[in-house]
Amino acid sequence: MMNEALAQTDPEMADVLTRELDRQQNTLVLIPSENYASKAVLLASGCIMTNKYAEGSPGKRYYNGCELVDRAESLAIERATELFGCDHVNVQPLTGAVANMAAYDALLEDGDTILAMELNHGGHLTHGHPLNFSGRWYNCISYGVTRDAEVIDYDQLRSLAREHQPKLIVAGASAYPRIMEFERFREVADEVGAYLMADIAHVAGLIVADEHPDPIPHCDVVTTTTHKTLRGPRAAIIMCRQEHAQAIDRAVFPGIQSGPQMHVVAAKAVAFKEALSPDFKEYQHQIVLNAKAIAQSLMDQGFRLVSGGTDNHLMLVDLSDKGITGRDAADRLEQAGICVNKNLVPFDTQSPVVTSGIRPGSPAVTTRGMKEPEMTLIGELMARVLDAGDDAFVIAEVREKVRELCERFPIYTDL
Ligand SMILES: Cc1ncc(COP(=O)(O)O)c(C=O)c1O
């Protein structure tokens, strides 16, 4: 990918990209929203369709010369429909945040009430954070997890729904290690006459591989990013029941976006083809096994996991009894070549920039081909670093072991 044209035109940027490839190769990426897209997806993301304007949809464009971008978008639509089993899909959203914005815009008026998951309990910014468009344009009420089991409090969900009569309930999270029971959300939505939307940005890959319950039969609208467990390009899609199709399409264009990024739409089509393969199912199954193995390894080393483990691709490690904040833990792990993100834990007393936890996950290391023995080792290495204080010797020793592990499981060998 790092071809001569780039090196000649912009040696400085070529050098940055070479070093980023080296960083990705020699780091254990445990950020659960990151992954290594295939070479085919990377190539499509950087393809000649970046040159093409294509406002509109296949067969109904505002520009000429769209025959082949129409084909690319139709392939993405056909494959996403088959993959998720949805009535209708819009494959143009640029990001997960934009997909959520369009979904709310299609279903709601400004000021309407949304009931969504509390950010501190695992929800996303676009689920009602006061500084985000969601919290500013809509009246957002939050449900959370129980104090004891740290799983979604469906009783609280029901009583908040009865009290606030939301027009939309959002089921979905960025940092929730357990499965979401979409039928229970549907029961509550039906009781109060609300629309139900699932934001499956994190667990989309698990869902299409039957490793997580399927929201499609229960939801009016389902949004997802395409770059996390789904392992496609950095973007999103919106699926919906037929009755919402026109409103969703209009909300995306001309409501929010103008020209779609057709190179990324092409890359989404490639990713959906990959996700339809039997290999992808195996990959998702291994993601879950691997997450459970990291979780077990960390618990064996004395770490407390929110809700006591994981059902999916990620876990939340509560460090509050370890004398280290999430921020310091993530920084220290990075020195040892292990890349995680700091994260709030439920009922956290720290601020979102400090936090009491970290959120490790298995999608990227599973793409490298690692299995349970490597996950157990990763848990042990993390524990050594987190228990080491500022001991530079331990950090250097772990850094070396991480490098060896990364060398055994290379990425993009022919780039
Ligand atoms: C649940 C959820 N929804 C939406 C998004 C937003 O995706 P993007 O970063 O592409 O805007 C994220 C990203 O982390 C997410 O976790």
Outline:
The chain has 415 residues and is α/β, with parallel strands linked by helices.
Q: What percentage of the residues does DSSP assign to strands (E)?
A: 5-15%
What share of the residues lie within helices? 40-55%
Architecture (CATH level 2) name of the largest domain: 3-Layer(aba) Sandwich
> What shape does the CA trace take?
globular
Strand order of the largest sheet: 4-10-9-8-7-5-6
Number of helices: 16
Number of domains: 2
Q: CA-to-CA gap between the ends?
A: 5 Å
Write down the CATH topology of the largest domain: Aspartate Aminotransferase, domain 2
Mean pLDDT: 97
What is the CATH H-level superfamily of the largest domain?
Type I PLP-dependent aspartate aminotransferase-like (Major domain)
Q: Pairing-aware structural class of the strands and helices?
A: alpha/beta
Cα Rg: 22 Å
Number of strands: 15
Task: Write structural notes for this entry.
- The protein has 415 residues and is an alpha/beta fold.
- It is 45% helix and 12% strand.
- The protein has 16 helices and 15 strands.
- It has helices at residues 4-9, 11-25, 39-45, 67-84, 96-107, 133-137, 154-164, 182-192, 204-208, 245-256, 262-275, 278-300, 326-335, 363-367, 372-387, 392-408; strands at 28-29, 56-57, 60-61, 88-90, 113-117, 139-143, 168-172, 195-199, 221-225, 236-240, 304-305, 317-318, 338-339, 342-343, 357-358.
- It has a 7-stranded mixed beta sheet, with helices on both faces. A 4-stranded antiparallel beta sheet has the order 11-12-15-14.
- A hairpin with a 2-residue loop joins β2 (56-57) and β3.
- Bound molecules: pyridoxal-5'-phosphate.
- Residues 33, 95-97, 100, 124, 126, 172-174, 199, 201-202, 225, 236 line the site of pyridoxal-5'-phosphate.
- Pyridoxal-5'-phosphate is lined by residues 33, 95-97, 100, 124, 126, 172-174, 199, 201-202, 225, 236.
